[in-house]
Amino acid sequence: METNNKTLQDWFSGLEVPTLWSAERRDVLDDLKDKFSLEYPNSNIKKENIIDETDKDIVVTVRWFDGYLESFRAKQVRQGEALLWMRLEDNKNRNIPLRNVRWFSMYPESHED
């Protein structure tokens, strides 16, 4: 039985990308470069959609461990395991580490319209 020791480079060395496909690919990439902001190179924030019709007025209330209660008006809210991210009404970002928070609430909830 014969073993085949070809590397991936050997397998794909003879393949060429079709010219039509690569031109279409360049057009798509150019469109994406236009849509996504160069100010945020590694993000998916579109510059024309920083404020769009899908943004909602969300009231976020945070109770800190020291007892302080703080409220925010946000357009967008994202919750991770350790961080609560908000885009506030004035388009500034606010990050809150959840390890410092006793509880927080959002109105309306994500399932409510």
Task: Write structural notes for this entry.
This protein folds into two domains: 16-47; 51-107, SH3 type barrels (Roll). It is 19% helix and 32% strand. The chain is built from two helices and five strands, in the order ααβββββ. The termini are far apart. The chain has a five-stranded antiparallel β-sheet, with no helix packed on it. It has 113 residues and is α+β, with helices and mostly antiparallel strands. The model is unreliable at 45-53 (pLDDT under 50). The radius of gyration is 23 Å and the shape is elongated.
Rg, nearest Å: 23 Å
Mind telling me which CATH architecture of the largest domain this is? Answer: Roll
Q: Please report the distance between the alpha carbons of the first and last residues.
A: 65 Å
Report the sheet-strand fraction. 25-35%
Number of helices: 2
Helices and strands, in order, run as HHEEEEE
The CATH topology of the largest domain: SH3 type barrels
Largest sheet: 5 strands, antiparallel
Estimated helix fraction: 10-25%
**Structural domain tally:** 2
3D shape = elongated
Low-confidence stretches: 45-53
**What's the level 1 CATH class of the largest domain?**
Mainly Beta
